[in-house]
Amino acid sequence: MKRLLDCHASDFENMTKDELVQSIVASEGRTLLSENIVTGSAAEGLTNSEVAKAAGADLILLNALDLFDIYISGLDETDDPIRRVKQLVGRPVGVNLEPIDLSADFNEQRLVISEGRMASKKTFQKANDLGFDFICLTGNPKTGVSNDVLVEAVKQAKEQFNGMIIAGKMHQSGVAEPVMTETVAKRIMDAGADVLLMPAVATVPGVNEEMCRSIVELAKKEKVLTMASIGTSQESADPSTIRQIGLMNKVIGFDIHHIGDSGYSGISPYENIIEMSKVIRGNRHTIRRMADSVNR
């Protein structure tokens, strides 16, 4: 098994879920995930996913994608859009699906999203058919994702989806509840998530180093991966902020470093993706990931 940061595009072609998980473990906290919104394009004629790969991302996460009405800005015409994206970037590709809770206690007006973006048996099966390597069960701002429904979605996803499952909230998503606690983390892991997602330190009020460390240590005992997310628009802050967050992530012991999509045109500024990469693994591995051809 190769470390993810050593893998070429050809290594990912037939990689199983368990092999993907193990390749992340073997990378020892040097895996970078870039999330991007599919309806915009930071570079004319290209998808945001290609920009993220060029900046050194190891994993590509698509946001705001309707699985029943697929549109990806910058993608050439194709009958197999997700496999085409994977061909262009040579990296594992995943999608956000949102476990909506209409009975939750909302703290702001709810944003209604399409059925193709919601977590359900139909979308899990569709994600399989489209060829996604992983799904991320989380919530965008205002959509109304609760931890209770998220836990149930993980259980259903385990039955319907063959790839890696990431689960957790990056922020409140419009619901008046704690984003993450040890109890919530244990429920998500017990439901079967392969990767526990939680906000990175300094992104959500109250999510501090002590709290993150205790939950990461709990996850390691359960042999579950952890991902620190920057989903609060700080992904578009100055590079020094990205540097501080990345270093804290490493100290705490996160396996995957997520950088969000709230830059211009639905992707973090490429400079910040590169900055996070340099922080978590240095220049040598950064330039290797940036220069690695999809033809290898």
Tell me what you see in this structure.
The radius of gyration is 17 Å and the shape is globular. An 8-stranded parallel β-barrel has the order 1-2-3-4-5-6-7-8, surrounded by 8 helices. Helix 7 (182-191) runs parallel beside helix 8. The model has no long low-confidence stretch (mean pLDDT 96). It has a single domain (27-291), classed as Aldolase class I (TIM Barrel, Alpha-Beta Barrel). It has 10 helices and 8 strands. It is 38% helix and 13% strand. It is α/β, with parallel strands linked by helices and 296 residues long.
What is shown here, in short?
With 296 residues, this protein is an alpha/beta fold. It has helices at residues 9-12, 17-26, 48-54, 81-89, 121-130, 147-160, 182-191, 209-221, 239-252, 270-291, and strands spanning 31-37, 59-63, 93-97, 134-137, 164-167, 195-199, 225-229, 256-259. The protein has a single domain (27-291), classed as Aldolase class I (TIM Barrel, Alpha-Beta Barrel), CATH 3.20.20.70.
